[in-house]
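COURSE: Structural Biology Practicum
ASSIGNMENT: Worksheet 4, Part C
STUDENT ID: 0417
INSTRUCTIONS: Below are two proteins. For each, the amino acid sequence is given first, followed by its structure token string. Answer the questions at the end about the second protein only.

PROTEIN I
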Amino acid sequence: MPRDATGASNPDWTDPDCPVARTLDLVGDRWSLLIVRDAMDGARSFTEFQRRTGIARNVLTDRLRKLTAHGLVAQRTAPSGRRQQYVLTDAGRDLFPVIVALRQWGERNAFAPGETHSVLVDRHGNPVPAIAPTSADGTALDADTTHVRKAP
């Protein structure tokens, strides 16, 4: 039986041997990635996530539970001591390049030429350069220069 990242049995993996499929099983719906995006942008409370995304309360509750259960988000008591906060774990922060790649794809393909959109900038206000995978020797990689080696 397929196992999840914790070693527990998980019969629900779409394709148990494929890292892309497993990742999509965990964060492949639009709400999960938007929650991660907003957490990266400073959202911490249930109310903030709901306000920023417009997500229904029941769906947000479900996604936060799932992200927490899979170790992408952790719950902590807010400094006031009255409410819970949601913070990204190391695994959640590891999604940063994924969010950036999706953003950059969207900038190139989801807007008409000249249409305005938000821009991701570094701490100095400079636009973040395009993410481009490279080989160990620095050669640019794409779908034509890579292939998947299947698990034995």
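PROTEIN II
(use this one for the questions)
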Amino acid sequence: MEPYGFCVNISQSPGLWARCPGVQWLGHQTKKRPSYFHKEFLSTGKLDPHYPKVCGHRGNVLDIKWNPFDDFEIASASEDATIKIWDIPKQLLSRNLTAYRKELVCHSRRVGLVEWHPTAANILLSAGYDYKVMVWNLDTKESVIMSPVKTIDCHQDVILSMSFNTNGSLLATTCKDRKIRVLDPRAGTILQEASYKGHRANKVLFLGNLKKLLSTGTSRWNNRQMALWDQDNLSVPLTEEDLDGSSGVLFPFYDADTNMLYVVGKGDGNIRYYEVSADKPHLNYLTEYRSYYPQKGIGVMPKRGLDVSTCEIFRFYKLITTKSLIEPVSMIVPRRSESYQEDIYPPTAGAQPSLTAREWLSGMNKEPLLVSLRPGSELLSPRPLPPERPLSNPMAPTSPHLWDQTGKVVAEDGEGPYSLLEEKAPRWAAEHRLEEKKTWLTNGFDIFECPPPKTENELLQMFYRQQEEIRRLRELVTQREVQAKQLELEIKNLRMSSEWF
């Protein structure tokens, strides 16, 4: 049997999407609030039938997931009962990719689901048709991993969906036996189990830090239905809402930053969206996006890949098989101001893990490291984790400098103390050089490598890119002015403190 393959879904990765070829774009716009849909003219065209694929499985590929901490790594699950980890070249594929980095072999039947841990690096979960959920540690040198670190064997039928909570300490699953379970993924024990007969759940989703679960499925009358649950008590749902009598599976997507819930039905042309609140009524229907073209599948762009200059808060990619195209649908909050909107872009989960695989497996839990979506901003949470090392001396200092009693930094090499302002100077210079280098990039492209426009459409595209670059540079200048004022205040405070002593 020839190996099966799949095309790389660039839309899941912000780092790759800027160079995604062959995407057909459609535009829709409406004046419905609180958000409307944005029309963009970027790279369009038809994908080459012989476009390079990722090949290597001996059966159909059932699920793929991008690594949330690596824009160039994919996990794929297949009917051949294996999971493969792929390294995607940064210059994208020039030929079929058949060499995988790791292969996970332990399931006895086909693997239907894979899920990356939201905060720990190199932790992957898989669910197969052998009714088992397996926890894998990819932080090993082995290319073929034969045994997982944990096997959860508590389901009585095929597992339909999996969802982590925010810090990855809990795992929710839906099963064909019509039960929703909340599990401890490290211990493999069931913490909560729903035995409610009035709701047959297909998909389940943790709703951020609200300590609630949302499930989509069907009612006893075969109507499509949503149900909201308390994660600590799954005996009875908090609320139920019947949607319609269609048969397509409902896929929920939740944006914890804006408390927005999007519900997409397979085979539908519309996308419903709600506002979720901790108080009753928990689900507040807002409106829906409507299209004549039904979606066969749908993908979501991570928050760090959104266009904040246009107040875009969510972006879908609809797979429309009837037209052989991918259609982006952007949710945009209408604002007249061109400046960065702080209220609709709170700090969000970044692309750096907050735990190593060993720390998470040992029982540690940490919230995701947060970043600001403001252009040019830095990590808001503590510094990235150092390379994993044996914890031989847990009391040893991890910082490269020590503080003496006078409040100054003392270098470990014994060269003597230096002031905090002197420590910041080289870092400021390095950041300035980095930002200066970034200014040569426009939408992910080197402006000196872009060919001159040949048609009127290409000229318009170049013009719009330049306008976005001008807006970004203005914001960068504003940030530099604020930082300069902060440095002036620090100098003034240091002078005043030296006068006092």
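ANSWER KEY EXCERPT:
Q1: The first strand starts at residue 4 and ends at 6.
Q2: The longest helix spans residues 456-500.
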